[in-house]
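Dear H.,

Thanks for agreeing to be a second pair of eyes. The structure we're designing against is below in token form, covering all 102 positions.
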């Protein structure tokens, strides 16, 4: 019941095929809009999106404030909110290694 359809990518202007299989997949997912972009552009956008938007909830190791960091917080690894990160970097000497232990 589905037939391959030729669509033109909104981003790069290339023609791409909206295959019968994809149409079926879209229908199953309840998506009514046809894809506007070719698979390559779609993937590129998705990647970009993920890169720029993915943030993880974390608690600042210094002040305990809720914050978000662009990497997955690892237990034991210190995470700082924007303010603390800034103040630490302002105070810190060039050498970031911890002070000598007593
Ligand atoms: Zn494209
Ligand atoms: Zn903080």
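And this is the sequence the design step returned. I haven't edited it by hand at all.
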């Amino acid at each position: 019941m589905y037939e391959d359809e030729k669509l033109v990518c909104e981003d790069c202007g290339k023609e791409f095929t909206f295959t019968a299989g994809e149409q079926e997949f879209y229908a199953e997912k309840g998506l009514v809009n046809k894809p506007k972009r070719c698979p390559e552009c779609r993937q590129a956008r998705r990647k970009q999106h993920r890169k720029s938007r993915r943030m993880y909830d974390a608690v600042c190791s210094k002040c305990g404030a809720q914050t978000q960091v662009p990497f997955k917080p690892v237990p034991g690894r210190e995470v700082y909110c924007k303010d603390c990160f800034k103040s630490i970097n302002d105070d810190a000497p060039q050498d970031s290694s911890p002070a000598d232990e007593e």
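Two observations from my side: Residues 60, 62-63, 65, 80-81, 83-84 surround zinc ion (ligand 2) (CB under 6 Å). Residues 64 and 81 are 9 Å apart (CA to CA).

Warmly,
E.
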